Give the backbone structure.
Amino acid sequence: MLWTLIRRHIRPYLPHIGAVVVLQLVAVLATLYLPSLNADIIDNGVATGDTDYIWRVGGLMLAVAMVQLIAAIASVWFGARVAMGMGRDVRRSIYRRVDRFSTEEMGRFGAPTLITRATNDVQQVQMLVLMTLNFMVMVPIMAIGGIIMAIQEDPGLSWLVWVSVPVLMLIVGLLVTRLMPLFERMQTNIDSINGVMREQIMGIRVVRAFVRERHETARFEDANATLTDTSVRIGRLFVIMGPAITVVLHLATAAVLWFGGHRVDAGLVQVGALTAFMQYLLQILMAVMMGTFMFMMFPRAIISARRIGEVLETLPTLAEPAHPVAIEADGGGASLEFRDVTFSYPGADSPVLDGVSFTAEAGKTTAIIGSTGAGKTTLVNLVPRLHDATSGQVLLDGVRITELSRATVSRAVGLVPQKPYLFSGTIAHNLRFGDPEASEEQLWEALETAQATEFVAERTTGEGDAVAKGLESAVSQGGTNVSGGQRQRLCIARTLVARPRLYVFDDSFSALDVTTDAKVREGLAHRTRGATTLIVAQRISTITSADQILVLEAGKIVGRGTHEELLESSQTYREIVDSQISVEEPA
Ligand SMILES: Nc1ncnc2c1ncn2[C@@H]1O[C@H](COP(=O)(O)OP(=O)(O)OP(=O)(O)O)[C@@H](O)[C@H]1O
Ligand SMILES: [Mg+2]
């Protein structure tokens, strides 16, 4: 999974990686050269008192050190560019994929984990790429080169290498295997913190209203404590690692001095060679340590890559057709037909819609009425293809919507959802969603029809220099800084600006008072003339003038016809009418 992910995103950076390899090669060769030069100075310069020689070789050493430094810096620079660039690309891939998810895939993952995956998990993979790039060339060459050079300096001490390297590997390896499961837990812990936090922020009013603060706080504390616990355990293992490594390094140094000192005494080796040997041994141990650190990043990155891969490999159930059919983009209303449509939510055992068939003729108004939970929202959501019918077909202008491109469907169908949602930005920015080119005049026209002119014109947000008025006034995420009825009207206006051929209003007048409701519908009747309208409503008064009314009960159409016809033919319809006459003004 990790390799697939990296392979898929590494291509644009191959030249950079080439540069990293070359620069590291230069740096590591310089690093390996330095101790032997040092030995040279001691044995041939200091020991013989040849100051000239010391200056010459010293100068060379300085130059080599400079080359090493510059190559190392440049290599890190290129490495960072690759890792960060790849991180950006992976995040982009995730975003694009999630963008195409239907409610089904969204429901399967849930927002919190998608957010963690796009941020924290990507960061883990990014870190691994960075570490690998920084160490992949250096570590093996430094380890093997160091061993060769050390043995060359003094073969008699080589056993020290064979002892200290496995000891260090064993210690670090033991710690790493204990770290792996903790890293996996850490990612899930971050998910659940995100989840609790998100729910709390979104539901803050409910929490307040029901005085559930203490309960919610406890839930957060719980998730927080779990994350802390995992982090502390990881920290503890890291704390052991530092000193353990230092001890091994110092013991190795002491051993070199002890055994080497005797050998110098016995005239078996020169002081300079011994110094070089010691430096090489330290380089070898450093390389081993860095290598192990790199491997330590792997388990965490593998887990993160798997989590990212799950997202990237989830094919949206709403696939784009390979050869999309074109239908008229502008012009009069589109006709809509449901042919024996059945729909079940994933995991549910009984269908929400069962054998629904009807035709909404072009330019006509079709209303859907039914008790709460009857499946009205589910039905209208099939029209803009928020999900696909389990069986049966939805046709637009006689063409199955699965054969149309997403763009075609969204241009033709304008949905005002039951739960209106606005995006953070200005009112104008929200209204232009369906038509970025719309002029201010067009925006005001749409607002006028939606009975929103007054409140938009009077609206101001911000203070001081940031004060904004009217169309430029600010809307917060979700539209939480306008009232429910205002939000509903803005959403109606947004759909009007897009000028679709088929309007779908899902209970879009519920938050409006009766007078405003009537005014909006009057305006709409005028504005949407020629377009097809599908309207879900609770109030009978909203739909009496519809060309066709469908009565939906438990996912089935149990009555259809005009208001007058239904009063005659449908028991259910009469019951709904009767229940409302008492509460509304008699017509
Ligand atoms: N995302 C979902 N996953 C599973 N079941 C769902 C989902 N959304 C709705 N349902 C179920 O489908 C049924 C119909 O819901 P739907 O929202 O279509 O009703 P509705 O007629 O629009 O009701 P209302 O008048 O309250 O808006 C309900 O029983 C509901 O529990
Ligand atoms: Mg509904």
Q: What stands out?
A: The domain at 336-584 is CATH 3.40.50.300 (Rossmann fold). The two ends are 66 Å apart (CA to CA).
